[in-house]
């Protein structure tokens, strides 16, 4: 008897909470810190370590089950994962250290505005560009007819 009655207030409460919390998290809560792009690096390092740890744990399970061959097959996978992670970290470490995400966003917006301004000033004109094949003069009809009559030997 109480199940149908509680359904209506539950829908009202959770529907209102969804709207309010979405608004609060989206527009009202301001972050007190800016990591400057370092959060990606830290999360990626943790992800690589956890994936390599899971490879080692799976190898231990294989050894415990009596399949050391399968465990040895996982060793190159763990080494490759770690090496690939280090490669990506070395590629992305310097840009993340030198420029904050906010600065990168500002640069992107500036470049987009500049491209939009340039595209408005100089619209594409079909007569400005001529394909190189079209620029070469076509052989006259007399030359082509003579070539048809006297093919090269």
From TrEMBL:
<feature type="transmembrane region" description="Helical">
    <location>
        <begin position="6"/>
        <end position="27"/>
    </location>
</feature>
<keyword id="KW-0812">Transmembrane</keyword>
<dbReference type="InterPro" id="IPR003864">
    <property type="entry name" value="CSC1/OSCA1-like_7TM"/>
</dbReference>
<dbReference type="GO" id="GO:0005886">
    <property type="term" value="C:plasma membrane"/>
</dbReference>
<protein>
    <recommendedName>
        <fullName>CSC1/OSCA1-like 7TM region domain-containing protein</fullName>
    </recommendedName>
</protein>
<feature type="transmembrane region" description="Helical">
    <location>
        <begin position="70"/>
        <end position="89"/>
    </location>
</feature>
<feature type="domain" description="CSC1/OSCA1-like 7TM region">
    <location>
        <begin position="1"/>
        <end position="62"/>
    </location>
</feature>
<dbReference type="InterPro" id="IPR045122">
    <property type="entry name" value="Csc1-like"/>
</dbReference>
<keyword id="KW-0472">Membrane</keyword>
<dbReference type="GO" id="GO:0005227">
    <property type="term" value="F:calcium-activated cation channel activity"/>
</dbReference>
<feature type="transmembrane region" description="Helical">
    <location>
        <begin position="39"/>
        <end position="64"/>
    </location>
</feature>
<keyword id="KW-1133">Transmembrane helix</keyword>
<dbReference type="Pfam" id="PF02714">
    <property type="entry name" value="RSN1_7TM"/>
</dbReference>
């Amino acid at each position: 008897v109480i199940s149908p009655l509680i359904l209506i207030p539950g829908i009202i409460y959770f529907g209102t909470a969804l709207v309010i919390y979405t608004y609060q998290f989206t527009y009202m809560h301001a972050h007190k810190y800016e990591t400057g792009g370092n959060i990606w690096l830290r999360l990626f390092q943790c992800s690589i370590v956890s994936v390599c740890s899971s490879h080692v744990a799976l190898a231990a399970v294989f050894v415990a089950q009596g399949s050391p061959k399968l465990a040895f097959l996982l060793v190159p996978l763990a080494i490759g994962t770690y090496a690939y992670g280090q490669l990506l970290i070395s590629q992305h470490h310097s840009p993340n250290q030198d420029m904050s995400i906010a600065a990168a966003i500002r640069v992107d917006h500036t470049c987009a505005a500049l491209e939009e301004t340039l595209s408005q000033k100089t619209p594409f004109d079909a007569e400005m560009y001529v394909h190189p094949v079209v620029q070469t003069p076509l052989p006259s009809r007399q030359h082509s007819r003579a070539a048809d009559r006297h093919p090269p030997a």
